[in-house]
Structures are given as structure tokens and as C-alpha cells.
Design a protein that fits this description.
heterodimer; A: alpha+beta; 4-stranded antiparallel β-sheet; globular; B: mainly beta; 9-stranded antiparallel β-sheet; 19 strands; 44% strand
Amino acid sequence: CGDSSVLREAVAVAQHHDAVTGTERQHVANDYARRLSEGWASCQVLVANALSLLGGSKDPLVFCNALNVSVCPLTETSTHFTVILYNSLARRVSWPVRLPVNGTCYEVMDPQGHPLPSQVSPDPPRTIPYPERAGGAQGELLFQAFAPPLGFSTFRIRQLSRGSPQDPPKSVLEG
Amino acid sequence: SGPLEIQNEHLRVLFDPLTGHLREIQNLEKGISLPVFQNFYWYAASAGDAASPQASGAYIFRPSSGPIPVAKRVSTALLKTPLVQELHQNFSSWCSQVVRLRPGQPFLELEWTLGPIPVGDSVGKELITRFQTPLATAGRFFTDSNGRQILERRRDYRPTWNLSQTEPVAGNYYPVNTRIFIQDEKLQLSVLTDRSQGGSSVQDGALELMVHRRLLHDDERGVGEPLDEALVVRGRHLVLLDPVGAASDGHRGRAQELVTPPHLILAPGKGPHLRQA
């Protein structure tokens, strides 16, 4: 059962000036993070229920909270999945999507069923240590998605081949 | 190897081949260019001094040094593909950045990953990113007020009282909720943030944003403990170079997208059949 009031209350608590500016004690910071995390988890259930109702499907929906560090078990292990993009702005947006994957080549279909340009970008040369990715995916699937004002777009993705990502067209390492 | 540059139909961005730092931004559409040097620096946090026992802490920003560069030279890796061009910059084991251009995007994206800030030298550090340009800004810069009104800020000046500046850096810092920019009579360099940060222009032609901090002393303002989390943070800045008259058209919409980005939801297989707008 989803409930948006959990997040609403957590955000309300976090209106305190210490939460806004980060001047709270450490154990209070941890408590703010816990409240926000629980609130977001509860909202995810609500959003998933709404999408299931709208789409007439009981299949599970997945929220990858660690996408910013390129971790998403679903995209890393699945050969066929769907990306739903929700735009809360009152105008159309174009948005770059990056998903951690382990395949070489994927087909990305836009909401009308037309293929979209996409590519699997491998890690740049690992001779320099940079903490770009926390996950174990071999590459990232890149494509430019879009969403209508205050609405959804769905993109269906299918893996076409297995194996390691190819070398990029041009990759130069500087000292 | 080839020149260190990335380019799309809107922008061409050049990097110093020796140091790896950002060197110049060219707006190909508008026919303008600006030398821009960007680097990460840290201010040493004050532990109190002869002038005042006030230490830097969660509430108090009181640097005891000028900005110290994280690295004078950075390791780089260039990645050019049809869908994205990236320069990966490695400043240190705890400071890196990806400078990115995508087709169709009239702005430069900087994605930085910072931390844990090392404090083995027993010095608290407040980390900034600074953009230096030759723009003649005469002490003026601009920050937003909660994403809405843009306010003009002037260095060492308050509009409603005579200011006696005692903190040349901290006394010129202002809240930045979505954007900060500097301009001269012709050009404007805007930096959009994905979160609220502190920002300033402590030198003409330069702007800076505080991106991370780790402190070892309590500032005696009620927190009762130092701000000493060994966090790793990742964030994004969007950099726009435009003629002054056309700049607001670019940064207003982008700032909205940055603070309210689309939500991404995944489903195995075909997923739900949503009616498309």
C-alpha cells in the first residue's frame, strides 16, 4: 500500500533550518536521511500502483536508486526491459538516459515503436583511477529520451548481442 | 595524440594539453568565445587565530588560507562517440570530474565526484570549483533567490548599510539555489547547480561555488560537534556562455530541468501499456 504522506512528513521535518543548511548533528542528519528514504520508498509503491493501474499490468516496477553511481541490477542482468520517463514540468523535455549494462548492442524503441539512436559506451581507459562507477557493469547504454509535458514516455529496450562493449570510435588517453 | 577538445553543433570546448584543465569555451552558434580556466581548490578551515578565536564549523565559513589547488595538472581520458563526448579529469584520488557535451545541448555539463576529503594533515577543508575568465566584472556577480528573482551582488558592498568587510572570502559568499553568473557588457558566463550551494566572485572575472567540506572543529554556535563526515558526493554543474541579451533565455529553462529532472522507472520485459501523449 503506497502512501505519499510519509514523504510529505519527512520533507516537512526537513524544512528545519538545520536540515536545509546541513548544520544538524550527525545523528540528526542520519535521522533526516532515514525519514526521507522511508518516505521515498513509500512513494515508489504509490507510483508503481498508479502506473500498474494506468497500464493494466501487475508486473513489478523497479526504481534504481543508485543509478547516479551506475548501479541497477535490472538493467545489468536483463536482456529486455522498459524505461518509463515521467516529466513533471509543464513543457516537453529531452533527457539523456544512461543505464549500466553488460551487453554490447541494444535496440531502443521510442513510444511510437521507432528505433532510437543508442550506443553502449565502455569505461574509458582504466589507467587513471577515478571513482566514476560503483557497480560491476561493463558499460553504459546511452540514448536521448524525451517526455511530454506532465506525462510519461515509455522506451522498450532489447539486447541484441552479448559480450563486452566495443571500443569507442575514438578514445585518447592523455598523460 | 590529438588535441584535447570536445565539440557539438553549439559548443566547442578546449582543454590545456599540458595541464588537462578547461581552457576555452566557444559558442559556435553565436560566434563568441571566452577563455575559461576551471579547477578545484580548497580553503583551509580556521581553528581560530589571533584576530578571533572563531573556528570554521557547520555554521561558520572562515577560511584561514587562500584557495589551494587540488591539482596543478590532471590526468585525462577523452571519449568521443556519436552520442556523447567526454573528457574525464582526475584531479586526485578523491576529486574527479567528467566534462560532457551531447549532440543538441547548448551547454557544457560538468559532473564532479568528490570525497572523502582527506584530513590526515589535521586541516579541515572547504572545497570549491572556480571558473576564471577575463571578463571585466567590476566586482559584480549575480545569484538567484530561491530559483526566482536574480539578485545583483557586489563584492565588499551591501546596498543598505556601510559595510566594513572583515572576511574577504566568506563575507562575499551568497546562497546559490539554482544559478550564479558573471557578465561584462557583452558576454555572460552562467553556472547552473543541481542543489543549493554557496557561491561568490572574490576576484573580477571569476566565480566559485562551494561543493563539499569537511571540518575538524566545532564553531561553538550550538551544533556541538565538528562537521566531519567522510562523504563522497556527486553533482552536476551546467555551464552556459551567451551574449548578455540572450543569456536568460538559456539559463531559466535549464535551471528548471536541473532541479526537477524527469523520474526514471524501470520494468522487466514489456512493462505496462501506458497511453502515450
